[in-house]
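To whoever picks this up:

The parser on our side crashed when reading a file containing two proteins. I've narrowed it down to the boundary between the first structure block and the second sequence. Both blocks are reproduced below exactly, byte for byte. First block:
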Amino acid sequence: MKRKGFIILLWVSLGTALFFFLFFTKEKSFHNFLITLLISSMYSFVLGLGNALINEFLNRKFPWSETTGIRAVLSVISIIIGNFILVYFCNYMNYVVIQKTATTEAFFSKEYGTTNWFMINIALLISAFLHAKSFMEELKKTSRKEVVEQKLIAKSANAQFESLKNQLDPHFLFNSLNVLSSLIDENPNQAQKFTASMSKIYRYVLEQKDKELVTVEDEIEFAKTYCDLLKTRFEDSVDFVFDVKKEDYKRYVVPLSLQLLLENCIKHNFATSARPLVIKIFSDNDTLCIENNLQAREQMKESAGIGLANIVQRYALLTKKNVFIEKSEDYFKVKVPILSDKPSNISAKIDTEDGSYEKAKKRVKELKGFYGNLISYCTVIPFLIIVNLLTSPHNLWFYFPMLGWGVGVASHAFQVFGVGESWKERKIREIMEKQKNRR
């Protein structure tokens, strides 16, 4: 326990001693005050330190944030058993050892049973409050930690995304200038047309490079312009076939993905008039496919690995859908996901589909409800015991609400930590995992 805890216990001991000395001690003397202070300190420190040690041990072995269900069950069991032992110890020291108002046999008889039970309920009230306070502090700490972690992840992902996008400008410009330099010597007129097309394409690159997603329609129009540029250089050696469904035009893809994939087709395959390279762009089951007949170059230039890897990484930052690559002896195909969401809604959709926040919110509500029920029980039952003992000590009716409500608290505990919806969900997941492993 920290220094602050010891100071609080000292003030509680002094305040309790003054209260009992002023209102319940007949002979006001310094000796009696010291005895009252000693008894008060014993109760405060034994119960306070005992519960603090139990709580600290459980915090180390079973943190709230990692094992919430197990920790809650252990907390309930530990505060009941622990306070039962601690209260009996304090009462024994008080009545048998210090004040000597009872013998050992009398202390464990029915005569002191009500007194012991009353003190146990008081101790349970205080202990339940401390454990609930510990839970709320751990919940706040975990929430703050998760918020910080999510911010760091978001910043890291954004920085990574920006880094990936910034690779496109120099890469595209470098390749375009290489094509232009070769055309200047071969065909100056086509080089001039190529320059005009390149300026149009580069304008699109500059417009779209700051966007996470663009419409399929915009990307297709850009791809057609880029294909015209390639046709300027390769003429009949390359053919392009576009067959994208009109209903997919308003959906979204990663910007410049088609340009990079078309560039890969040209770079990794040879094309001649006798054996033209045929590149098909079409949509199929929520994917945009780029397929070419496989005519692999025998001596390929060293690749920087930017194109396809860039697209895969950018999709990984935006969605859980994967980029698929198919290769056979006759063709090479890349499938990129077509997304239905607008760029600003993607992250929100992933969070909604996952449902982690709503599940956590529901779980916290269940735990708060249970601890509220437990604290209410530990508060009301001692009050009923006092009323019963003051009004009709020979008719102990407080047992009925104590037992009835106690069964309700126990049932609530099993529902929240053992046999509730969370238990059903866990069992369903376990069965599904077993079936999955068998397959």
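<<boundary where parser fails>>
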Amino acid sequence: MRALRLFIDVIRGALIGVAEIIPGVSGGTIALIVGVYGTLIGSAGHLVRGVVRGVTDGVRGRGFAAAKQHCAQVQLRVLVPVAVGMVVAVLVAARLLAPLIDAHPEETRALFAGLIVVSLIVPIRMVGGRWTAREVLAAVAAAILTFGLTSIPSAPTADPNLLVVVLAAAVAICALVLPGVSGSFLLLTVGLYAPTLEAVNDRDLAYIGAFALGAVLGLSLFVSGLEWLLEHKHRITLAIMTGLMVGSLRSLWPWQGETGALLPAGDNVGLAVGMFAIGIVIVAVLIVVESALVRRRVADGEDVLEPARPAT
């Protein structure tokens, strides 16, 4: 049973890692779908606070008791296999998927749109019950905002300064903890998508190190705030997440110009519709499988697909 759970968590991490490579697809969305979103957010928050308290309390001579208390709540049995799956998937996907996206952009965007459309069921179910007018308005506003952001023309690729890489990574990594926002698309918008894929494929340690530093800074500043929102403003936060996911669909319209401008449907409409349907089926199957696993207590994820139950 433990080996099966470990394998499942590695696969979950791999799916999140692949999503992080694909512009328009949010790693946070996939984390929601596969049932580790709450665990990742909670563990990352405790890890960040543990490190910060360890540094500040150590300097002040207060000991490390508070830091150890936070670190003890990090669910390493989930976090480690998920992280391993993510790293392996990013390395493989950067090598295999990037050329596929370049060669078949319309088909792949249609596939990704199907993934996002059906995944809307996840945050909607997490809100639970009937939506209030305030929650609907918040979702609509978030959708409009995301639609506007994804309408920004893509910047041309350039040889970036490492400081720019740090800042971009700090923003893009937030997509890992914010469903509906694509980190890869944010990199694409600022002209760092192709350089980042190239750095991963070429094992450019300076670039990768700068990106990792930005990611750590971004998570340190962002995770705790989002965790607080999910705990104290649960419904409205998830309603906004739903709107973000709806608005992100604009970036996945299959027919686009080089700068992201929307174009009329082309000749391969049938193929695009077919890929869209495949995307819907893939996520629907993931949701069904995840629900079955949760019911059987094989995998974690009660905080995503089912209401949390008190410990017994």
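After patching the parser it read the second block fine. The longest helix spans residues 76-103. The chain has one domain: 2-305.
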